[in-house]
Queue: 2 jobs
Job 1
Amino acid sequence: MLKQRTLARWQRAGREMWTRWVAGYETSPETRPMPPDCDCLPQATGVPLPQPVSSGQALDYYRRKRRWTGRTPVGLAVWRFKYRDDLDAGWQLVFAAARLLNEQQTIDGFECVIPAPSSPVFREYSPSRWLGEKLGETIGKPVVNDLFVRTRLCLPQKELPSFQARRTNISAVFKVAQNKKRHIVGKRALLIDDLSRSGHTLAELRRALQEAGGGKVLPFAFTAVRGLRRGL
């Protein structure tokens, strides 16, 4: 049954895949209300993002230090939200991130929230955009969507075997859309992503923002992967 559903999904896709690679991912609005138990994740202290993203942080690592002990609570919430469409887990991540930013007194250090563009895969919503919009609503900051455009095609970062390959693959892929520059010129921004593997994507997006005239950029991921892990 699963194979039949997957095959039918690909057959319906048609030219949609190429369109999403070139034009970017368009998400549908999500109006589901927050669940009553959305503030149930353990308190996160924050962990540093991989080396290419200096001064960036994540809520927690995706897996525990010993891989066979499983995912962290934050990693499990990201997995449920991203791969099982569990929006309750998404709200848990949003509240945990808002709590961490408030405790670190960094909310007043930026003026807008910028979600990273999602990979062009077939989902009903973009995970990073959903998280960015809900986080912006929670902390009272404007969200700038559809900011980045792709200049060329590239391979999915998670499929590449080395840091050097990932850096080369993502180099100069993004730029800020001309009609969106006025929203970020001189502004301090919180650049967020749902999951950071090597840090090169966030580093490339920060470069594109600063080249377009943006101010200080604080990279933030909801979870970070230890090393080059393909399986999540």
Job 2
Amino acid sequence: MFVKLRDLFIGVLFGLLSAGLILLVSRPREGRAVLLRPPPTLSPLVVNVDGAVRSPGVYTLPVNSRVGDAVEMAGGFTEDASPGSVNLAARLEDGSHVYIPQVRSESGSGLEGGTVLGISPEGEIIPLVNINQAPLDVLVSLPGIGPVTAEKIISYREEHLFSRVEEIQKVPGIGPATFENIKIYLTVGE
């Protein structure tokens, strides 16, 4: 009889341990459920293109579009456009304003091929100075450029034509601070 009770006790103990183990394993894990949402869809860019383009207006372009894409959407450049004064590879942002300046002939301007117009950070139309052709009196009109520095620019360009406006920093006396003040007024032509 003692053997039967011992076997019964071991059986009950084994059953309780098995039931506890099953409850422990099957218990739901704690934590919060993760809600999966679909990836956001990027909305197209809406940009205003005007100036020397065939069809100025507001255009809708795909995300990651460039200035060149906006010009193409506006029908391309007109005959009097100055595409060299705009970075066609720049990425567009929603609400961008793309202005393509035009070359306009002015008598007495002292610049061969007319005056190239640009746009200032404030949105005003400004004449751009072609550093490859501008005479002394036009170079002196740039902020922070005096007669001595203007002469250095003319001397430098007689040996090296500028291919980018940033190259004007190679002229002695024009450092990064001066360049930051004058860069919006500069062009190298087309």
